Amino acid sequence: MARLERIPIGQLEAVVLVSDELRAGFVPAAGMIGHSLEHRGEELLVQRGGLDAWRGTGRSFGLPLLHPWANRLRDWRYAAAGRAVTIDRSRGVVRADENDLPIHGALAAAEDWDVVDAGADGAAAWLSAALDYGRRDDRLAVFPFPHVLELELRLEGDALSITTTVVPTAATEVPLAFGWHPWLALPGVPRAEWELALPARTAIALDARNLPTGDRAEAGPERAALGDRALDDHSAVAEDARLVLAGGGREIAVEWAGGYRYAQVFAPTALDVACLEPMMAPVAALCTGEDLELAQPGERVSATFRVRVTQRPPGVSG
Known about the structure:
nine-stranded antiparallel sheet; six-stranded antiparallel sheet; Beta-galactosidase, Chain A, domain 5; mainly beta; single chain; 3 helices
């Protein structure tokens, strides 16, 4: 039976959604980070530096929301929806990647999420939260498009569903380039034996700085062992795409369930992790304008994905 728990994590509180199969914990005062996802008592989210590093340096782990853009930009300047923006690095809102490019937006471990509703019944547990992005001037300096973010988290059976909604709060359009970054792992299974299943997609070539080159190529569905491959691949996918990490009889599927149209697959050899990331727009879309959708004043724009975890008998594939 599903239930809701509230547990202390240091001086913060985590809200934990529990079903018969899964436990999914989120910390509202640390950017609504998904700090844990357990399946039958085993942790599926890579912790890296954990909550302390996330709050201190913005070092990603677990299941973070990346907003107002996922991945990286081409420069510390961009123009979108009729506004030209120069990001002031000295304000410390945005961090740089290894190539000194702005990465993963401006929220990081934002402390001002408001829990709107949380509860459970016999079938599911849920958590609703909202954040007024325009509440802080330093965030508006990075992304001058006032809006409210709403999150609807629902855990039911073997699946965690996450719906992200953008609601403009001024007479200006809001660019939509957010995404999520699940740091997934298969406990007890060597990385080389992990299987990665990808759907038919349009592969988007990236340069040495992981920025799109403009080249695209169609790719068919595939399922293969990760082996010793290092991946940091970007693609356009269908709105019902399904990316799967499998091994040891367990399957973790990240299912696009409306709104998301792009994916990043990140699996470095230096860390036992596979990130299957839903994204609203291509990498650097705030700079290029390519396929960048805008939420209109008075409109609500939502995107949903699910993380579904199943256990299969040995030798049975998904």
